[in-house]
Amino acid sequence: MPLSRLLENNAAWAESAVQRDPDFFTRLQQQQAPEYLWIGCSDSRVPANEIVGLAPGELFVHRNVANIVVDTDLNCLSVLQYAIDVLGVKHVMVTGHYGCGGVRAVFDGERLGLIDKWLRHVEDVKRRHQTELALLSTDQAIDRLCELNVIEQARHVCETTIVQDAWRRGSRVAVHGWIYGLRDGLLRPLGFSAAHTDDIDAAYRTALVSPTV
Ligand code: CO
């Protein structure tokens, strides 16, 4: 597809948005007031807004390979801080997906280049849960590692000073772990939901034993 097609698509999209709602861009220009922060994988098959049926202005988004949240990633932490402290989002969803190339590469021990350093964080998840993973077939184990990675990263979100401080201030921002199925287009909550420091351990334990597909 030539690049010009993308610009034509864009012009058509902008026109239809105005046809549906003449004030659409005027309103968005004033401010954004999203209630949700989506932390997901960069995978092109998991377009955040489209999957949850939200319009521009309704979903704040951070995506990286394998939806990883670590304390050393200034980019992700800045998104989290801005979303919670400035925009006042009510929910943070860490959303992984089955068939994640990053997770698969870790499972297979595949070397892909610089990205291997980033994926070390998934390696940590794999090592932590190796007893459970060893009992599964390869396909099941990769699916399970996709789920476990979401649960661990959701826990990391809760443990950041950003979320900890927000909760200390009395904010009710909630953190969730979801996974998306490329096979059927469906999102499934993984049983991890926390809105208070005291919720973290229970949310983590619940998620680890929650039945999945
Ligand atoms: Co992925």
Explained architecture:
This protein is of the alpha/beta class. Strands 2-1-3-4-5 form a five-stranded mixed beta sheet. Helix 5 packs across helix 6. It is globular, with a radius of gyration of 18 Å. The chain starts with a helix and ends with a helix.
Query: What portion of residues belong to β-strands?
Result: 15-25%
Number of helices: 10
Give the CATH class of the largest domain: Alpha Beta
Query: How helical, in percent, are the residues?
Result: 40-55%
Structural class: alpha/beta
The end-to-end span amounts to 36 Å
Counting structural domains, the number is: 2
Q: Classify the oligomer.
A: single chain
Please state the second-level CATH architecture of the largest domain: 3-Layer(aba) Sandwich
H-E string: HHEHEHEHHHHHEEH
Unreliable residue stretches: none
Q: Would you identify the CATH H-level superfamily of the largest domain?
A: Carbonic anhydrase
Rg (C-alpha, Å): 18 Å
Largest sheet: 5 strands, mixed
Q: What small molecules does this complex bind?
A: cobalt (II) ion
Quote the average pLDDT: 96
Record the strand order, biggest sheet: 2-1-3-4-5
Brief digest:
This protein is of the alpha/beta class and 213 residues long. It is built from ten helices and five strands; from the N terminus they run ααβαβαβαααααββα.
Explain the layout of strands and helices:
Blueprint: H1 3-20, H2 24-30, E1 36-41, H3 48-52, E2 59-64, H4 74-87, E3 91-97, H5 101-108, H6 115-128, H7 130-133, H8 138-159, H9 161-168, E4 174-180, E5 187-194, H10 200-209
Parallel strand pairs: 1-2, 1-3, 3-4
Antiparallel strand pairs: 4-5
